[in-house]
Specification:
Organism: Pseudobacter ginsenosidimutans
Shape: globular
Oligomer: single chain
Distance between the termini: 49 Å
CATH class of the largest domain: Alpha Beta
Structural class: alpha+beta
Helix content: 25-40%
Strand order of the largest sheet: 6-7-8-9-12
CATH architecture of the largest domain: 3-Layer(aba) Sandwich
InterPro entries: Knr4/Smi1-like_dom, Knr4/Smi1-like_sf
Domain Knr4/Smi1-like: 35-135
CATH topology of the largest domain: SMI1/KNR4-like
Number of helices: 8
Protein name: Knr4/Smi1-like domain-containing protein
Pfam family, one: SMI1_KNR4
Order of helices and strands: HEEEHHEEEEEEHHEHHEEEEH
Strand content: 15-25%
Radius of gyration: 19 Å
Length: 243
């Protein structure tokens, strides 16, 4: 299914608000060819996939009883640019947490990630924009019982509680039979930690804030979902009291 088909299914449905009022989602105005061409100039390869251009001609986003409006055109960058250098900021929850669509250096639109600051984790939310729109559709229908609701309400805490925070050490990665992982580890200082979300399912993630990452020191392996972070070294008093 294309993103446009998923959006049309959502727009044709109707839902009930918490107050019991029936509502429908409303699309934002679509873009003309000059606007689509201008948007493409801000993206890798200066191109848009055909199915995304088709979507944007129909609607540039939509409003519904979600946290904030959903936009397909917000490509102005994000604070975690070392994690995600090329993104579409799709929406936020109004609490400082956001959903970002990752774009590779060829201009292909990839998975959607949830960036949360409390707890400070990055989670794979959806495999594609189509999947994300379908998740929103399910959330509007059944709220917490939906896939989106379960991921948003519970999964981030599970990721935070992982004993290793979802990371592996550089030392361990260097002994891996995975060539890409090993070569990436060989490029990193020995104190770095590695987060690997390649071929991981929706709901997988890592606690980027658990080890007090030094911001602007993150390293990404090309445009793969494979990152290295440099933990902040603990001071004397922190080591002494185990904090």
């Amino acid at each position: 299914m294309s993103p446009l088909q998923a959006l049309k299914e959502l727009l044709n449905d109707q839902f009930k608000s918490e107050d019991g009022e029936v509502f429908k989602a409303s699309p934002h105005k679509g873009l003309g060819i000059p606007e689509i061409d201008a948007l493409a100039q801000h993206l890798p390869g200066q191109r848009l996939p055909d199915e995304i251009a088709e979507l944007l001609r129909f609607a540039s986003g939509f409003d519904c009883e979600f946290f904030e409006e959903i936009s397909f055109t917000n490509v102005d960058g994000f604070a975690l640019e070392h994690f995600f250098p090329n993104i579409v900021e799709l929406t936020g929850d109004g609490l400082g947490n956001f959903w970002l669509l990752d774009i590779d250096y060829q201009g292909n639109w990839g998975p959607v990630y949830y960036t949360c600051h409390d707890p400070a984790v990055i989670m794979k939310q959806a495999e594609s924009l189509t999947d994300f729109i379908q998740q929103i559709h399910g959330y509007l229908r059944t709220n917490e019982e939906s896939v989106f609701g379960q991921l948003y309400e519970h999964k981030t805490y599970e990721i935070w509680k992982q004993p290793d925070g979802g990371f592996i050490t550089v030392e361990k990665a260097k002994t891996s039979g995975d060539r890409i992982l090993k070569e990436f580890a060989d490029q990193l200082p020995p104190d770095y930690l590695i987060a690997d979300l390649r071929n991981k399912p929706v709901g997988a993630g890592f606690a980027w804030g658990k080890y007090y990452s030094i911001m602007d020191k993150e390293s990404r392996c090309k445009d793969l979902p494979l990152w290295g972070i440099q933990p902040k070294r603990k001071g004397f008093w922190s080591r002494l009291f185990g904090k």
